[in-house]
């Protein structure tokens, strides 16, 4: 059996007395498009920062591409790409300068870096203003540039934290097709997004984190079966959407039915 692309065991991160990620364990298979979901503040970005070496775990064990992160951090970082929550781009460079810098830092030779830079700029529709500085880009343009930088070296694992936020519908469609082709060729994608329709359309497997703890993990059909087994009332005739699953799993004790009491603002009631 092939080893997972990502293997997490008992991963924990504390900030003083606050536990942001609490003893989570999961496996992500190679070539999987994996969705990592949770409410705001659940620990999603903290988990990604640990998996990409931006933040040291308090305790626990991580293996990526079969390597222990504690002993092979550089070998792992050469094989992963990241679009982080804060894009952290170099604003005083042009898009071309930035991609050429990133390509060279990943160890690509000059000719390969130049070829991939030109191809990525065309693909992302960022080649029209070659002298424009990154700091003058719109948020959507910066997001596309960050994704281009994350894939320029052909990573085996790609971590995406809200990659479609601020990206127009046409560009989003192009990016989704590119990401699906990457998984077809064996790359693993670890995606977190609040747009659950996108996650449902792209991801084959999903994990849900709530208050730092892993509360669900499996394929969409497995999650549907688990939620259905927990229901005591009449079963829905149609398959639950990912949004409905998410609300039933993390929405407290409620079932998500319209009959439930909903908190309202007094002046809008």
Describe this structure in words.
The protein is of the alpha/beta class. It has a domain at 6-79 and 155-268: Rossmann fold (3-Layer(aba) Sandwich), CATH 3.40.50.300. The chain contains nine helices and ten strands. The chain has helices at 44-51, 73-77, 95-105, 110-123, 139-151, 169-184, 196-202, 220-230, 242-250; strands at 6-15, 18-28, 33-37, 59-64, 67-68, 80-83, 157-161, 188-192, 205-210, 213-219. Strands 6-7-8-3-9-10 form a six-stranded mixed β-sheet, sandwiched between helices. A hairpin with a 2-residue loop joins strand 1 (6-15) and strand 2. Helix 3 (95-105) packs across helix 4 (110-123) and helix 8 (220-230) packs across helix 9. The longest helix has 16 residues, at 169-184. The radius of gyration is 20 Å and the shape is globular. It starts with 5 loop residues before the first strand and ends in a 19-residue tail after the last helix. The relative contact order is 0.15.
Question: Short description, anyone?
Answer:
With 269 residues, the protein is of the alpha/beta class. It has nine helices and ten strands. The protein has a domain at 6-79 and 155-268: 3-Layer(aba) Sandwich (Rossmann fold).
